[in-house]
Amino acid sequence: MKALRRWIEVVVEPRRILGLRHLPRFFRDWRRLRRAGMTARLSDTWPQLADRTASTPFDPHYFFQGAWLARQLAQRRPTCHVDVGSDLRVVGVVSAFVPTTFLDLRPAAIAVPGLTPQAGDLNALPFADGSLESLSCMHVIEHIGLGRYGDPIDPDGSVKACRELARVLRPGGWLFLSTPVGQPRVEFNAHRIFDPQVIESMVAPLALTSFAWVDDRGRFHDQATPEDARSARYACGMFAFQAPPATHSGLPGATTALGEPVLPLTAPTSTAPLTTRAQGEGAEA
Q1: DSSP 42
Q2: Pairing mode, strands 100-104 and 207-214
Q3: pTM for the complete prediction?
Q4: Disulfide engineering: 95 pairs with which of 18, 100, 120, 220, CB 3.0-4.6 Å?
């Protein structure tokens, strides 16, 4: 039945169909407005039939991950930040207090102070190894390689994307990552759902420093562990990772276990714009 419903939703939006039952109320309200003296021609009407709800509806995954990311960045205050393919509305807010570069397979045609849009491919990020102080990729990796956004079909797309995210992070830098978690499967071509305990190995050698998640009922859980979300059907896991600090030899040091103290970011030596490699085609939304 679930598969049938999803196929029906390709051509019919159930919420709009159900909203037709409110048409009588719509016309009653329209007549009341006209009797009250306001001009509202029938040719100018635009029926909105499904918005009279008892509470404000929202998508728990996207609301809570945006709130979580903003708080992570507000706490750490990086000199600059790069986001790959996340919700552009959240990225726009973040750019108000952290200069942000936004990469996407489909570059955003926007001009906002503090926000620099750029085309970029998550499987070939246009940044040098170990160059980024702060990086986010929210509800994106689950799409890579499924073709939904025009990217090539690749069964290992998500794994390759995570390796790229880890590659460009500088020693001590931060990666903020979210993705659907729970009972692992592929719901082609919408997304993948990952076992939350697998994500850590996908971004090795980064160290998991904190985990939060949204459960199947839309409830937010902070200060949790990936194990808590393993039995979920379609949850959202939010992972804060830190790159190993550089050793005296200049090589990355040992990783930090979940819950153990991590070294703070060292002060940047320069506030110059990010240096990039040749620009790729784009990253997913």
Answers
A1: G
A2: unpaired
A3: 0.82
A4: 100
Residue among 170, 172, 195, 192 at smallest CA distance from 182 = 195
Give all strands of the β-sheet with 235-242 in edge-to-edge order.
Answer: 115-119, 100-104, 81-84, 132-138, 169-181, 235-242, 207-214, 220-221
- The three-class DSSP label of residue 204 is coil
Report the alpha-carbon distance of residue 226 to residue 210 in Å, rounded: 9
Distance of CA 155 to the CA centre of its chain: 21
Question: Whats the size of the chain, residue-wise?
Answer: 285
DSSP-assigned states of every residue in 56-90: ----HHHHHHHHHHHHHHHHH--S-EEEES--HHH
Residues 191, 235 contacting (CB under 8 angstroms): no
β-pairing, 207-214 with 220-221?
Answer: antiparallel
CB-based contact 174:242 (threshold 8 Å): yes
E strand or H helix that includes residue 178: strand 169-181
Long-range contacts from 32-36, C-beta under 8 angstroms, 24+ separation: none
Of 185-194, 214-223, 245-254, give the lowest mean pLDDT range.
245-254
Q: Which of 200, 87, 197 is nearest to 139 (CA)?
A: 87
Q: What is the pLDDT of residues 34-66, one digit of tens each?
A: 999 999 999 999 999 989 899 999 999 999 999
CA nearest to 223, candidates 235, 210, 236: 210
HEC states along 221-234?
ECCCCHHHHCCCCC
Side chain identity at 154, as an amino acid letter?
D
